[in-house]
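Worked example

This section walks through a single chain of length 543. The input is the sequence exactly as stored; nothing has been trimmed or padded.
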Amino acid sequence: MKDLALWNEGDWIAIIAVVVLAIFLAIGGKIAVQKEPEFAGHPKGLYMLFFAEMWERFSYYGMRAILIFYLTQHWLFSDSKSSLIYGAYTSLVYITPVLGGYLADRYLGQRKAVLFGGLLLAAGHSLMAVEGVGGQDDPTINVFWAALAFIIVGSGFLKANISVMVGQLYKLTDIRRDGAYTIFYMGINVGAAIGTILVGYLGQTIGWGFGFGLAGIGMLAGLVVFVLGKKALMGAGEAPAVLSKSREWTLYGIGFAAVAVIWALVQYQDVIQTLLAISGVALLGYVLYESFKLEKEPRERMFAILFLISLNPLFWGLFEQAGGSMNLFTDRFVDRGAVPASIFQSINPIYIILMAPIFAALWQWLGKRGKEPSAPAKFGLALAQMGLGNLVLVWGAQAYGIEAMTPVIFVFLYYLLATTGELCLSPVGLSAMNRLAPSFLASLIMGAWFYMTAVGNFVAGKIGEATGGHGGELSKAKLLEIYELFGWVAIGAAVAVLLVSPIVKRWMHLDTLGDRADDLPGTKEGPGEAQGAGVHPGTQPAG
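Given that input, the structure is written out below as tokens.
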């Protein structure tokens, strides 16, 4: 134990994170033991999902904070190659929800899909703790690829489905829906902030294995919360029909087979680029095919969904520089004192925690007065803020000189604008996907949302690769040049989106959007006994 007098900024930040984690766990315990079905105006099931997702994000973002450094410092990849691997990995994390969403919709149900995904994630984060001696000639690198594969497939079964379960707790016309998703998004970022600080601190100051090992413990804690909180879901997320054990285990076998495929795929980033293009066209074709089978209003809602989804690659391509090129920039070119660079990845989720309640209240306040911006208008505002964040960082670094260390205030301003942009896009997009999609396509549409986020993450890897120039080593001047270019591109796109947003809003047909009885847990019973907690409405036996 280091003497208290020798503690630096990084040590104090880590201790504060432990205290904050303890406070949130105490609040969670209070909600769990109370008898009332709601807390602060929302069902208890929302908070169970909040804490399960909090722990999952603790593990994922903690690992993400140090991954680029692990690639460059332990496995000795170049900066450009590391950015590309990082982008390929994060893109696959977001594309596998298409598979997980489809299997949940058709067979498993969201609850079992989330549970299986959590087990795969726990295995993957545990394997990340196996370091070997380092360098690309170390055969232990194959364990590293396997760890990434388990995490990628596990995320595919968990990400889209747990988001769908949030929506199943509310009526489609319930004005609390956007607020619920923002609260849920706050849970994501509590885990992301604390996980980033603690995993980043341990990984960069004590050892990689300690950081990754803590991420694995966080994932196991999330699984425990999810299993113990089953009753709070009131039947949400159960299988659409009775599922035989043989078919259920076959589906799990498909999951393990996917791990083997991803293990090979993640090592070849060019192949991923080709597959993203091919599968993207196929997914778009399938969604359009399903859209044209619908009547006019639901068909136009699907068109609105496709418009919103199409904006993901640009926004996330810029936003996801955070864990790649922005992480390296902070490490090498920012005056950050004694704080490990990975800890700066916690700035974004901390901003989310502070501002998510404000945004949730703002949307509700504006909504009651008929002045809330439409979802497409919010997306336009998101792009504008992300572009401005890029330009503020560039202008600040140039003002102090390329050769000088950039003041840390510009990193905070960059993440502030990226965060306000994120709050205008991500929780709003999650809510729109669940609200506008037909019930029989709910998880697939949520998967498509994450798919286009996957494209954005791969774009982020390509942008990060470009900041390394021809030599592969990140250059401050090149990074600022690339950031400035895409900052102006994002602002231009924002103007275009704001101009067409009234048309897209009309496609959403919010004035005729009604609740469907079979969308609500407990409202569609079988011909016999009443719906029980944890049982999907369609699986009730007669009695």
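What to look for: Confidence is low (pLDDT under 50) at residues 517-543.
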